[in-house]
Specification:
With 285 residues, the protein is α/β, with parallel strands linked by helices. It is 50% helix and 13% strand. The chain is built from 14 helices and 9 strands.
């Protein structure tokens, strides 16, 4: 597969990549390296992983990072309620003659293992593994994730080593709420995902909402571009552009004038301070 062929496949499933995204994704596939996508929220980082999975007809496994996430939430855990029920059943069946060692060994078998996203990705590969918003995790989790990505294997003390027969396609995303350590970035190919240019944003809106006219899509894209230039708490992403287009379509509007923009601003800006700043700036006409 060439970069152009990959771009065509992504386009087929509804993702319109620019040359930079296409090249980064192609190299990640060809070099068998994780792809670290960083950028503002709403620029299509997560959507790239979804589109790759669709384009390549592979399952998508998603690990959503959050503050305090640890290995038991990302890799595996034991099903303690089922283990307890199993132990009680053994005790009842043994009628006081339970072998403690045999009982303990029977508790830590595959039937009681809860596979979390990382373990599932290693076992079910080939697949696309999305590690979403890795910047929300802490340093310890980064170190753990780096080890898994380096070896494509994990060791479960009770079961032994589990290794991916084929390394999963890994996409990591970051909104850059904090700096991710260099060690993790060095393991990956890096790409900064920016907001789309005007022409591509118009194409994205019209692809997502075919009923929206070229004129209205252009007006929305221009207005959103102006909003992104303001000092907002949360600049609008492509998802907000699409939401704005849906709102205007639901109202039956074919033009984005100042009055319509003002009354539908809640579709694109999610903070009161941002809406006030946008109206005061005069960018809405």
């Amino acid at each position: 597969m060439t970069p152009d062929e990959l771009a065509a496949e992504l386009d087929r499933v509804g993702y319109l990549p620019d040359a930079g995204v296409t090249t980064a994704a192609f190299l990640a596939l060809r070099m068998h390296r994780p792809l670290f996508c960083e950028g503002e929220p709403g620029t299509g980082k997560t959507s790239l992983a979804l589109a790759l999975a669709q384009a390549m007809s592979l399952p998508l496994i998603r690990l959503q990072c959050h503050e305090g996430i640890d290995a038991s939430q990302a890799l595996y855990d034991w099903d303690f309620p089922r283990q307890l029920l199993h132990l009680r059943a053994l005790e009842a069946a043994a009628d006081g003659a339970l072998d403690p060692d045999a009982a303990e060994a029977s508790l830590y078998t595959r039937r009681f293992l809860l596979a979390r996203p990382l373990l599932r990705a290693l076992e079910e590969s080939p697949c696309v593994l999305l590690v979403d918003e890795v910047d929300r995790a802490d340093d310890e989790f980064e170190a753990f994730l780096l080890e898994v990505l380096d070896t494509n294997a994990v060791t479960i003390p009770e079961l032994g080593e589990i290794r991916a027969l084929v390394p999963p396609i890994v996409i990591l995303t970051s909104n850059r709420t904090r700096e991710v350590h260099d060690a993790l970035k060095r393991r990956c190919l890096y790409h900064w995902v920016d907001h789309p240019d005007l022409a591509r944003e118009v194409a994205i809106i019209r692809r997502g909402l075919p009923g929206v006219s070229e004129r209205l899509a252009s007006q929305i894209a221009v207005a959103v571009g102006k909003l992104r230039e303001l000092d907002l708490l949360k600049p609008p992403g492509v998802a907000e552009s699409l939401d704005w287009a849906r709102a205007l379509s639901a109202l039956g509007r074919t033009e984005l004038d100042a009055e319509t923009a003002a009354v539908t601003l809640g579709a694109v800006l999610k903070y009161r301070e941002d809406a006030t700043r946008a109206v005061a700036s005069g960018v809405l006409g």
